[in-house]
Amino acid sequence: MIQIERDIISRCQQGEKEAFRWVVQTHQRMIFSLALKMLCDEEEAKDMVQETFIRVWQSIRSYDPQKTFSTWIYTIASRLCIDRLKRANRIIALPEDELALRRFASDNDSQQTLENKEWVSIVRMIAEGLSDKQRLVFTLCQLEGLPSSEVEQITGLDAKQVKSNLYVARQTIRKRLKELGYE
Amino acid sequence: MNKTNDILEKLKAVEQPVIDNPDALTDLIMSNLPEQDVTKVEQPQKPHTMLVALQVISTMAALWMIGLFFYTNYIELGQNTQQSLYGQTIDLSQGSTLKDVYTSHLRASQDKSISYTQLKTMHYEKK
């Protein structure tokens, strides 16, 4: 952890709200990205970001500086995402989602960008049918590109469980894409 | 590389989702921050020694009472069993067949159930 981050966290732990603004600004995009892919709803993702930072603020005194700060925030966000998924209805792909996926798959531009609603459509299309745990592991490993060791810390799963959840998720997605004629 | 892997790799490389108005979201979060709870979390206090002693004594007393209850019941049960066993013994020396033994047992039971008035009558009849 860099010194500046350590100082800011220490100030937050003393209750300094302005220091916490830096924490929010630095990490909100990362949490939004996870929330959007997990919940497949932009407004709900923003809500989740807000809830996550309120939790972070409330429990920042219990943060152990030995751990990576972003991993700790990811852990809180992941738990909140899972809680929301349990409460919400199952995420089901919409007819227009397939179009977004086809457009993305056929585009060979290496500098391709996606709008949030396109991200939602593609994830909703490929991750339909995954369990909450598989969805979380898949999002963290595959879509967020986090290393396996960090995913283990965030999810509380061991290496074997992370590997098996990711394997099942990939197999399910492969099967789904095959049905849609992508293989 | 197959199409699934292609799509997944492309998704990894593509720019991550962005918040349309990040400053507004930051302000919203900051304005909704609650006050941090500055009070220390109270450590659970150790129970008072007197309370522990009382708990031990009451537990022992309860165990002793339960033991006593079972012991007295056991003694009473033993006595009753003995009495009922003695009262219902069939004398196998009465007669040579099972019928004889049973008949003599019934007679003996009838004899036992003779009332005081019957005994008195029998006594006077003898006289």
Q: Which helices and strands, and how do they pair?
A:
The complex is a heterodimer of chains A (183) and B (127).
Chain A: H1 3-13, H2 17-39, H3 42-59, H4 69-87, H5 95-106, H6 116-126, H7 132-143, H8 148-155, H9 159-179
Helix pairs in contact in A: 1-2, 2-3, 2-4, 3-4, 4-8, 5-6, 7-9
Chain B: H1 3-13, H2 22-31, H3 49-87, H4 98-112, H5 116-126
How would you sum up this structure, described in words?
The complex is a heterodimer of chains A (183) and B (127). Chain A is mainly α. Chain A has helices at residues 3-13, 17-39, 42-59, 69-87, 95-106, 116-126, 132-143, 148-155, 159-179. By secondary structure, chain B is mainly alpha-helical. Chain B is 68% helix and 0% strand. Chain B has helices at 3-13, 22-31, 49-87, 98-112, 116-126. The model of chain B has no long low-confidence stretch (mean pLDDT 78). At the A-B interface, helix 2, helix 3, helix 5, helix 6 and helix 9 of A face helix 1 and helix 2 of B.
The total beta strand count of chain B reads 0
Instruction: Compute the CA-based radius of gyration of chain B.
Output: 45 Å
Structural class of chain A: mainly alpha
Q: Which stretches of chain A are low in confidence, meaning pLDDT under 50 for 5 or more residues running?
A: none
Oligomer: heterodimer
As residue ranges, the low-confidence spans of chain B are none
Strand content of chain A: under 5%
Give average pLDDT of chain B, whole number.
78
Please report the number of helical segments of chain B. Answer: 5
Shape of chain A: elongated
What's the helical proportion of residues of chain B? Answer: 55-70%
| Largest sheet features of chain B | none
- Cα Rg of chain A: 18 Å
Percent in helix of chain A: over 70%
Largest sheet report of chain A: none
Chain pair forming the biggest interface: A-B, 44 and 30 residues
